[in-house]
Amino acid sequence: MKEAPVRIRVFVPCGGRRHALDLDVYGWDDVRVAQTPCDVLGGFAPMAPCRQWAREHREYVFWGGESALFDKLAEQNLLVKLELPRATWDLIPPSIGTPKPIPLKDPKGFWVGTALEPYGLVYHPRLLKRLGVEEIRDWEDVLNPKLKGNVAQCAPTRSSSSHATYEVILQAKGEAEGWAWLKRLGEQTGIFTARSRDVPSVVAKGEFAVGFAVPSYMAFEERLAGFDIKFVAPRNAFVTPEPIAVLAGARNPRTARAFIEFLLSEAGQRVFMETGLFPITPKYRMQGPSGSKIELAVEFTGGLRSFFDAPVSNVYDDDVAQRRYQQVNEQFRREIEAVWKKPS
Predict the structure, then answer these.
(1) What's the pLDDT at 336?
(2) What pLDDT score was predicted for residue 52?
(3) Counting CB atoms within 10 angstroms of each CB, which of 81, 158, 270, 326 has the fewest?
């Protein structure tokens, strides 16, 4: 008789809405979890309401976003140490990337990464061909004059992925050159979408040729739906390890830790791979049967199977980004949004 799955509901605030993802997970006997539902509340939440949120909800897990947020939660005693088995903890390297290492787990043990997710560029291959443009490989390709009016992006004031990617450009090029580049991007832009999730959607439908600052999993959803769309993570693309932590006061911390152990297991990592995310450890690779979702994800990202196969370049410094968060938003409003006109 086939084992009944454990139903896990993951809530992720995204673009002003709460999206629910139900995962039917088999094999939980291996991680010693009773066959009962596990509600996991996660999210890309601002720092300000986190203290009140954590105290009021007392859910099991806080999941997703940037690692700096988790460091701040730990400093405010809102997290408990994970205390994962040593063999599981040691699977995850301390960091990845140069010259600025991307932490993949907390040296103090309060959080651990679960999957690697790049924010990059999406494009519609057939539309590019009609425009006489080669397939996109780097940031500079987006500034091709033939793409004027055919680029979609979400404002950094509305999207964390856009804001992080604006910072990548600014930190890689320096403020003066970086803002000059971003203004040119604005001139190429045919639409500023209401939500970051809308960027891959309008590209997938062929309404625009290229989308800027798109998380890989958002774009892969469109590919799974049958649309002709591809993704590329250019040099220095922002990469999040999708951290996870157990909240202080969680009602069932043992179940929470077991859930995290599952996510870091081969079965858990395969769940991520099938959604277009990449393994958090070099032990596992994007490898599946011909025609599988995993192999489709590999084709979708241009053959990428692991972020550990080659050196990863990273310039993003979260301390710099946090210090000037409002400054970047205000400069965008003043120098790009206020003067933007849809190209004719």
Answers:
(1) 97
(2) 54
(3) 326
Q: Which CATH code fits 6-116+241-300?
A: 3.40.190.10
- pLDDT (tens digit per residue) in 151-201: 999 999 988 889 999 999 999 999 999 999 999 999 999 999 998 889 999
Q: Which residue has the tokens 């494009």?
A: 123
Domain ranges for the chain, please list them.
6-116+241-300, 118-238+312-337
Phi and psi of 266, rounded to 5°? -60, -45
Architecture of the domain spanning 118-238+312-337: 3-Layer(aba) Sandwich (3.40)
Characterize the bridge pairing of strands 210-215 and 230-232: unpaired
Q: Write out the H or E segment, with its range, that includes residue 140.
A: none
Cβ-Cβ contacts under 8 Å for 113 (sequence gap 6 or more): 67, 92, 103, 104, 105, 241, 242, 243, 244, 280
Instruction: With beta carbons less than 8 A apart as the criterion, state whether 235 and 313 touch.
Output: yes
Q: How far apart are CA 273 and CA 117, in angstroms?
A: 10
